[in-house]
User: Fold this.
Amino acid sequence: MANSYYDPADLRKFGKITEWSEELGTKFFDYYGKVFEEGALSAREKSLIALAVSHVVKCPYCIDAYTKDGLQKGITKEEMMEAVHAGAAIESGATLVHGVQMMNKYNKLSM
Amino acid sequence: MPAGIFKCWPQQIEDYKMATKSLKARHNELAESNKQLDILNGGIFAEGELPFFKDKIAAIGQFPLRPKKLEILQINVGYMCNQVCEHCHVDAGPDRKEIMTRETMGQCLDVIRNTGAHTLDLTGGAPEMNPDFRWFVEEAAKAGIKDFIVRSNLTIIRANKKYYDLPEFFKKHNVHVISSMPHYTRGKTDKQRGDGVFDKSIKALQELNAVGYGLPNSSLRLDLVYNPSGAYLPGDQIAMEKDFKKALKEDFDIVFHSLFAITNLPIARFLDYLIASENYEDYMYALVEAYNPAAVENVMCTNTISISWDGWLYDCDFNQMLGLKVASKVKNIKDYNEEILTDRDIIISQHCYGCTAGAGSSCQGTVT
Assistant:
């Protein structure tokens, strides 16, 4: 057992989750694979969305995986950073928009 | 894995910041092909963490791997190059003095005139730096081979005045030009990268277009080769071609025919880079994970013979760099016999996973 919670080498073992639940694991990977296929959105666009979400959910495995995926798809570092900012902006916006709730409550409680 | 390889990491990383010399000139131990084979046969493979290539292809009845009909003669006319690319599997550079002589070229010409192969593929180094390059092209063009390829790195065309007329020279002999273009950039910021390599390549491509190369419907073929600049596999060849075409047309008004996405094989300088950057194991995992049995069927060693500057024969350019001569009675161009040569087992090791990953990889791009 490793003495830290995240080990980069664990990412390549991801597929092994199927060993403990064949049915659910297979269903998940089928779904996952289907999601990232070329569709109304290109595989390239989906890769950038995945990269942004990876940052928002702060998943180190996902960040490694989708940075590499982006490189493989010829995505530039400028595009990657813009995607990360898009995620970060939504996340900070999500915090700030609660400021309206604070204002509402403040006003309600104040004479 | 030999411990010595690990001990010199910091030094190697330092070397990469310079990267103006070949491994050979740096006396790097990876300049010796048997050290490379030790690594490829040891470590995660010897420990059973990843399967040997031999076992993978045995499972689909492809071991021993055997040649099919010979289609391509690939001749390496020398390891000298004007560039020192980090990923170079040839370990080529200005300091490499291995150059094919006119005598060996003569032996190659005898073979070219009598071969059943339909494609002649000249590579290097920068093949244009061989002093007898033009003579060889003129003579070989007379042999009437169907597809005559020269692998040009583009920057050579702009490297010195004596090379400025290469586009015209290629055109005169109806040479099919295949050029490496490791990256494109749509924006303006990245154009200066790689010490002017990008700008020189762009200029060279424009000059090739100007004499008719790469234009739609032009019989003057201009194809580009893309290999990833780092420890990752190439993406989908068709999607990459679309991106390259769009960016090069919009930004520089450049056109070309096809893009070949080639996987970097873990040998020579690329292997050195993988180890120094601690990407070796992940890269091998990625290659093995992407193993595609369908690609084994058409892997390029089944239709190609690689000839080195000194006339030795190999299953492919990669085996040439690993010093693995063909397992045949006929080992040198001077004893060439196509029939005997075709009846051989192809020599494999773990670098072969590079040619069977994903859609497969060869000097002509994907193989599936």
